[in-house]
Design a protein that fits this description.
Elements: E1 7-10, H1 20-29, E2 34-40, H2 52-58, E3 65-71, H3 79-85, E4 89-93, H4 100-109, E5 113-118, E6 136-140, H5 155-168, E7 174-178, H6 186-192, E8 196-199, H7 201-204, H8 208-220
Length: about 220
């Protein structure tokens, strides 16, 4: 079994929007390797967050991976613009893509890594034909659209099953988990098989640098 690097991806949805660039720099310097950016369109999810101009404006603040989570209908429409704005990894929802295979290929053709996200109640079976083509699968551990929700415990079973499937097929695919992650469950999620953890409130609710360091230690097992 290949040892996968464990990565913390602070979610900017919970950051102070008046100091976004500064907050990105703070968590990057404290050990976060991905910056998780939730793009919401008010259609796929009820909320509206931010888009390309905001992403482009914070890009100069860090060279860390911009992990852009597209919670929008037919996200392929924005793939080229997201690349221009500075996205390194574009993750699209299976539930939001009419032609998922084409969208994944479009993202890769633009030179970005491609991820596919599943809502909590979406079965892993929808990945049967697409799994070998993606770099990452994001398993939502809350229903998407709002920050600060509680982690859904059955997600752990889903993570274990997905990791087994990836290993059985000999694939090189990351598993990201997003929703309700904090010091109380981060290690448990990693032990289930995830290696990229998204945390919003647990990072930006208080001392962002200290919270980042603590979570990185928890998920990597290093102090």
């Amino acid at each position: 079994m290949m040892e996968r690097k464990c990565i913390l991806a602070p979610s900017l949805l919970a950051a102070d929007f008046g100091r976004l660039g500064e907050q990105v720099q703070t968590v990057a310097q404290a050990g976060a390797e991905y910056i998780h950016i939730d793009v919401m369109d008010g259609m796929f999810v009820p909320s509206i967050s931010f888009g390309m101009p905001v992403i482009a404006s914070i890009r100069p603040w860090t060279d860390k991976v911009f992990d852009v989570h597209m919670m929008v209908e037919e996200p392929g429409r924005y793939a080229a613009d997201m690349k221009k704005a500075g996205a390194d990894l574009l993750c699209v929802h299976q539930e939001a893509c009419r032609h998922l295979d084409r969208t994944i290929q479009q993202i890769k053709d633009l030179g970005m890594k491609a991820g596919v996200a599943l809502n909590p109640a979406t079965s892993l079976e929808v990945l049967d034909y697409i799994l070998p083509q993606v770099d990452m699968v994001l398993l939502m551990s809350v229903n998407p659209g709002f920050g600060g929700q509680k982690f859904l415990p059955y997600t752990l079973t889903k993570v274990r099953k997905l990791r087994e499937r990836i290993l059985q097929q000999g694939l090189d695919v990351d598993i990201q988990v997003d929703g309700g992650i904090g010091p109380g469950n981060a290690r448990q999620v990693v032990e289930a098989g995830a290696n990229i953890l998204v945390a919003g409130s647990a990072v930006f609710g208080g001392d962002a640098a200290e919270n980042t360091r603590r979570l990185v230690e928890l998920i990597t097992g290093e102090s």
